Amino acid sequence: MTHLLLHYEPIIRLSGFAAMLALMMLWEWRQPRRVLNLRRTQRWPANLGIIVVDSVVVRLVFPVLAVGVAGLAEARGWGLFHWLPAPLWLAGIASLLLLDLAIYAQHVLFHKAPLLWRLHRMHHSDLDFDVTTALRFHPLEIVLSMLIKLGVVVALGAPPVVVMLFEVILNATAMFNHGNVHLPERLDRGLRWLLVTPDMHRVHHSIYPEETNSNFGFNLPWWDRLFGTYREQPGAGHIGMIIGLESFRDQRATGLMDLLLQPFLNAESSPSNSSRNLVLRK
Length: 282
What we know:
It is globular and about 55 Å long. It has one domain (2-273). By secondary structure, the chain is mostly helical. The chain has helices at residues 2-7, 9-30, 40-61, 66-76, 80-83, 88-112, 114-124, 139-156, 160-177, 185-191, 198-202, 209-212, 222-226, 237-240, 256-261. Helices cover 60% and strands 0% of the residues. The model is unreliable at 269-282 (pLDDT under 50). GO terms for molecular function: glyceryl-ether monooxygenase activity; iron ion binding. It is a multi-pass membrane protein.
């Protein structure tokens, strides 16, 4: 069964991605949390186009991806869980947790290091917050993120089927928690103890630095609570909050070529320099 799943890994990942994207788009249409500031035609071409660019770049740069590297590590006996006599179930659970912790730590690093922030700020410069925001990462950030992920996979010796499961879960939860969808308040309060919810992650896309530098989790919410980066709600409320970055409030935040050039433009080197006084022009 495991070998069968790995054989169909590209189909499983692509099918899961397409199904979750379609589901979130439908949910956003039927039950939106906020009224968007811009028309979808102003944002979606670039946000959807960047995922095509990212996919091409990754395929050109990396001959094998995370699941393939996990298989190589397994064959060569590399990594912690190949050195320790850990049963598959224990290695699987520990790998899922530690891979998610690595994604959290990487996210914090991309906010704290000025050069890395120049890459990551493209994600934050979106002037609205919906499922397509989850796809909006600069290809150079994607390459660096993949290098980090491959290193963690090898260091852990994570089982290939667990790495595939992690990739599918991470893609799905990232699209979910970037969704412009309404959840009942009581459900959101309970769910965010187990999973990063849209209301929890939306705080992270606020224009205010103290809110941008919080709620870094993409999948599990526990790391933010454990390391003191959790913030319950945005100061202005979810309807009144301003999304994006002060330095990018024009075409540079919505055009595909402009997004690709963003890291090379002069703007703030870290989110801590953003002003508090921006009034969004609708």
